[in-house]
Amino acid sequence: MSAPGTWASGIREALRHPFWQAVALLLGAYLLFEFGIALVPPLVGIKSAPIPASVLVQYMLTAVVGILLYVSDQEERWRRFKEPIRAALVDPNKRWIRAALLIVVPISAGFVTYRQVRPSVGAGAQLRSIHPAPPSTISFRGRTMTLAGLENLLRRSGDSAQHLATGRRVYYANCLPCHGDLLDGRGQYAHAFNPAPLSFADNGTIAQLTESYVFWRIAKGGRGLPREGTPWNSAMPAWEEFLTEDEIWSVIVFLYQHTGWKPRTWDEEGGGGAP
Amino acid sequence: MTDLFPLLQAVADTAGAYGRFPVIGSRAAVWIAAEVHLMFAAFVLGVPMFAVITEAIGIFGKDDKYDRLAKEFTRLLVVAYSATAIWGAVLTFFLTTLYPRFWSHLARLFGLSMWIYVGLFFIESFTLYLYYYGWDRWQTGRAKYGHWTLGLLLNVWGTAVMFIANGWLTYMMSPPAGMTAETLPESVGLWNALANATWMPINIHRLIANAVFGGSIVAAYAAYRFLAAKSAEERAHYDWMGYVGNFVAISIFIVLPFAGYYLGREIYQYNQQLGITMMGGFMSWLWILQAFLIGILFLVSNYYLWIGMGRIPGAERFMPYTKWMLVILVLGVIVWATPHTMIANRRELEEMGGSHHPFLGVLGVMSAKNTAVNLMILTTFLSFLLYRRANKRPTAAWARAGTIVQGLSFGAATAVVLFFGVYGYFVSAIVRIGFSVYQVLAVLATIVVVVVLDILMLRGAQSRGAIRWGQMPERSQYALFLLAVTFTWLMGLMGFARSGIRQHWHVFEVIRDTSPDAVTPALGSAAIMISACVLIFLGLVSFIFWLSELGQKSSPGREVAELAAAAPPPPSGSGPSPAPLLGGD
Fold first, then answer.
1. Suppose B66 and one of A192, B57, B188, B298 were both cysteines; which one would form an S-S bond, judging by CB atoms 3.0 to 4.6 Å apart?
2. DSSP 3-state helix, strand, coil percentages of chain A (rounded to 5)?
């Protein structure tokens, strides 16, 4: 227990006021989003990363809306919340606060604007769709293949250990430099590409896809991506020029076996859900 | 070879296939005409649904206030009908002059249904006139039942008209299997083209959405009248009307996502390319916008209820819980609107090891989003329940046990939703999709059980005091405006999604769009177009609101009599007694 008049009791008293509650919540939300979230992945043994600025802005906007709803959903709380704002704007003895606001607010706005518009040599933020829509059919070495319902026939024929071995050989001979030893998209060349090579270990890549989709992406590479959603800027080669059909299906078997993911299957009605 | 055919078709089709619209271009002109027509159509189809329900409550509950309310809803319809027809004509003329060859294709295929459509629209219009202008004449006895039947018929004609038009537009998205560019329209068969793969899902989705939309616009009208009110009686009446409109909008809105899911599933089943373009492809960010908009709807509708509890005696005991419900809703919005593929610069991408964040990537998939939205639905339902019970003291002997069962139902539904949400990460995608059904069923079952128990439990309940209708802060009415704007914008956005996934096809993979506008606009451009449509629609609707008020002012004696008949509750007193489900008295 702190004695009356100490800092602690002063803070406790202030936090009973809706205005300062709102300020504290806003600050807490910022600290949680900017620093707190990055602390979570190491708890489960995953490498951490701060959240992108675009997501931080999005989260903070949501938090601001939530806080405004909180302070205004009851008449008494809303009246108390407005008290210090009104006092700062009209009370004769708060002139120094108004003067400070007149200086601090424009400078802050100017600083934010400057950060937004200052020239930079870095590539700008990008919004990319990572699930381009596949065509209904593709031509593979002069043969037309219908992607809907297409299955990996190697899973039903031949020696599965042999397919896996072929897939492993193909992967380490061709895919390793970009997609990495751990299939996590961190191969030795990966840092040179933008967009970075995909991590197959991520639950949002091959784990969400049918094998026919993965076949299409490997066979046609960056050049075979649809016009919609351009620029893709993908450096992925069109592997149909270097690999046989069976080699592509084999490497797909390897990708799923090695990551532990199961490919999305075609259900009885041929449908599926949102990837 | 397959790429050559569309090219040849494009060359062959260009001459005389398209007209030119000045300044904004043909596509923008048709876009605006179609969207504004659709918004008005949704309004004139949605409002009759609950006008006829409200009138029924008045008849069978022997409460004249509901009858007056239903008539006030219907008064808005008369002018809105004209606006719907005008925009329909604009759309037709634009299509015939700007897309003559494509229109010719539709006319050859759907000609007979177009004649039926016109006939039904004619009958529907005159049914509306009889329904509105015969209101006072057929007010009592058997004539009143006859009048109510007119309201029912109005809904039947309106629904039939919508189903026909839905057949035309869904044909463009999912034409019958086997059609090619060379197929003669006459050989397809009218029913075959109308009853295509996405026809019934769209019919169901629009039917529900129209009722939601109509409710939100009526609530906005009430808010406008509340803010312009000159007397306590007026404020009380329009406060009540706004509450009813909002109640209808939000309670029906809760089932809309399930209809949307059904539509999405049918689109996937019809064509995987359409499905992926919509959900995972270049339109995937549209769903983040949608999540934001629906998040606004959830937050604001709860906020409106919480403010409204300030005018209900006895609601104080529930007030401490609202902040925790707000926490759930805000967390729900954050999870639902977390993108899977994030906008990031080069440095951020490198730090994350790709476009997925190592932790937030987990929130970007359907397991997390389904869990968030189901919990938000449960929370909103709880808000309604607290609002409804605020001024009641149950007298049933088993009330305590009933409340405990209600609490357990909420707990069980939350547990089911969370369990399948988490378990979804450990199973394959095809299994995970099925989990959403269990989550939805748990939530719906809880809603049904809790509502039934509540109705039984509160029979003969004591009142803690009457709702002080009219004693609402003005910001609550702006919340109703925001709901209407958000619903309208959402409708424009989802219309763009449904139409845009065809990309460069007039009729998907049958008739290629070879006009200069054959590009799918980026989200920013689409957002500007949607906003323009929303502004035009809301501007015209505001004019209709004003006309309605003007009509009442022209006969002030009648207005006073009607308001008196609606018995708007004085601030302190015994106001209109909402129907059992609508809330407390």
1. B57
2. 55, 5, 40
Q: Give the integer Cα–Cα distance in Å for B161 and B164.
A: 5
Rounded to an integer, what distance in angstroms lies between the CA atom of residue B316 and that of residue A74? 10
Q: Using DSSP, state whether B46 is helix, strand or coil.
A: helix
Q: In terms of CA atoms, which chain A residue is nearest residue B300? A: A69
Q: How many residues are recorded in chain A?
A: 275
Token representation of residue B222: 């009430």
3-state secondary structure of B462: strand
Which B residues 474-503 touch A at CB under 8 Å?
475, 503
Which residues of chain B neighbour A48 with C-beta distances below 8 Å?
A: 358-359
A126 or A151, greater pLDDT? A151
B281 contacts on A by Cβ (under 8 Å): 129, 131-133, 228-229
Q: Does the pLDDT of residue B9 top 80, yes or no?
A: no
Instruction: Give B535's Cβ-side CA count (13 Å radius).
Output: 6
What are the extents of the domains in chain A? Answer: 7-117, 137-259
Residue from the list B327, B344, B473 with its beta carbon closest to the beta carbon of A126? B344
ipTM: 0.84
Dihedral class, residue B178 (left if φ above 0, else alpha if ψ from -120 to 50, else beta)? left
**DSSP string over B358-389:** TTGGGGGSHHHHHHHHHHHHHHHHHHHHHHHH
Closest CA to B77 of B109, B48, B107: B48
Residue whose entry in the numeric block shows the structure tokens 């005409």: B33
Of A112-126, B292-306, B564-578, the least confident: B564-578
Confidence of residue B351 (pLDDT cuts 50, 70, 90): confident
Q: Residue A145's beta-bridge partner residues? A: A138
- CB pair distance less than 8 Å for B345 and A194: no
Q: Across the interface, which of B303, B354, B359 has its CB nearest the CB of A199?
A: B354
Residues of B with CB below 8 A from A184's CB?
353
Asked if B239 contacts B226 with a C-beta cutoff of 8 angstroms, the reply is: yes
Nearest by CB to residue A125, choosing from B295, B344, B473, is B344
The pLDDT tens digits of the residues spanning B68-91 come to: 889 988 988 888 899 999 999 999
Q: What are residue B44's phi and psi, to 5 degrees?
A: -75, -10
Question: Is the pLDDT at A167 greater than 90, yes or no?
Answer: yes
Does residue B106 or residue A136 have the better pLDDT?
B106
SS3 A139: strand
Q: Do A264 and B430 touch (CB under 8 A)?
A: yes
Q: Rounded to 5, what percent of chain B is helix, strand, coil?
A: 75, 0, 25
Least CB–CB distance from A133: residue in B277, B359, B436? B277
**Domain A137-259 falls under CATH 1.10.760.10:** yes
Residue B304, class by beta-carbon neighbours within 10 Å (0-12 exposed, 13-18 middle, 19+ buried)? buried
Say yes or no for a CB contact (<8 Å) between B357 and A55. yes
Distances in Å between the alpha carbon of B230 and those of B222, B225, B226, B236, B242? 14, 9, 9, 11, 17
